[in-house]
Design goal:
By secondary structure, this protein is an all-beta fold. The protein contains no helices and 11 strands. Strands 2, 4, 5, 6, 9, 10 and 11 form a 7-stranded mixed β-sheet that branches. A 4-stranded antiparallel β-sheet has the order 1-3-8-7, with no helix packed on it. Strand 4 (33-39) and strand 5 (46-51) form a beta hairpin. The chain is globular. The relative contact order is 0.32. The mean pLDDT is 95.
Length: 116
Amino acid sequence: QVQLVESGGGLVQAGGSLRLSCAASGRTFSSYAMGWFRQAPGKEREFVAYITSSGDSTYYADSVKGRFTISRDKAKNTVYLQMNSLKPEDTAVYYCNADLPTANYWGQGTQVTVSS
């Protein structure tokens, strides 16, 4: 069974920080790029961050650049999203994604709520 299990979501005040984790199981994802997406109520799912298989290149949406950092630990088969200087507009369900040649795997989503 292949799974992406997310954790770390919760409620935080504006200006605070939160660290999301996405632990993969059932197979290794070390050879594939991984990323984070988010979806706010009534809005389309949007790209947040992406990291290459090697971990040496990262990409971010303009809305989070400079505040969020994506990283991965291949030994733990886990990808992280460090979120700093959080804003109320960051409130959304955050999803982990693994980009495989034949399929995309998604986590269950974790709720992040930022209060003003």
